[in-house]
Predict the 3D structure of the following.
Amino acid sequence: MSPPPSPLMLLPLLHLAAGSFAAGNAKATPPSAAAAAGAGAPAPVPTPWPEQFHAVVFTNLTESGGRLQLIDLYYDWPKGRNLNLIHSQLSGDPTYDVEWTNGTSYYFDSGSCRTVRFPVGLLPPDWLADGAVYLGREHVDGFDCHLWTKVDFIWYYEEVATGRPVRWNFFNGV
Ligand SMILES: *[C@@H]1O[C@H](CO)[C@@H](O)[C@H](O)[C@H]1NC(C)=O
Ligand SMILES: *[C@@H]1O[C@H](CO)[C@@H](O)[C@H](O)[C@H]1NC(C)=O
């Protein structure tokens, strides 16, 4: 498959990665998604991300041979950077994944560092708006959500009531 759409997509090369967002700590509150979904109503538009936010992402990669991870995600669009602080289960030493908007990412821990290039750079706050296909409403992780898919790669669930991300799944067809 083509290169991953973005470095912000955590561990994008894995066959299936499912991440759920928990306690977001947004500095700006996204506008509420329109709850209207009556017959003939236009498909809802994805809520843009705040320009800066902190989210806790629970990631379950066990199906593709990986492990459980708890990721503190610090997104900072104005300053062109994103930090994923990755805590793996039973591992004391977190991995830092710093992604810059120019496409350079650094993965490092206390003992090693490597550089990865993602030409696409950081996802802009409205990355989903262009080219997403609306698939309807679904109940997921206990929330009533709108569901969109984009390039048959990502499935993105957003809470209807607040417009906050609840879950995203990545599929990388091999
Ligand atoms: C992780 O995913 C696997 C496979 O889908 C599932 O069996 C397991 O219950 C999940 N674990 C957690 C903690 O969500
Ligand atoms: C991108 O920006 C980072 C942070 O300023 C810098 O370390 C890196 O060298 C830059 N990469 C390129 C290809 O310019």
Remarks:
- Residues 11-25+34-132 form one domain.
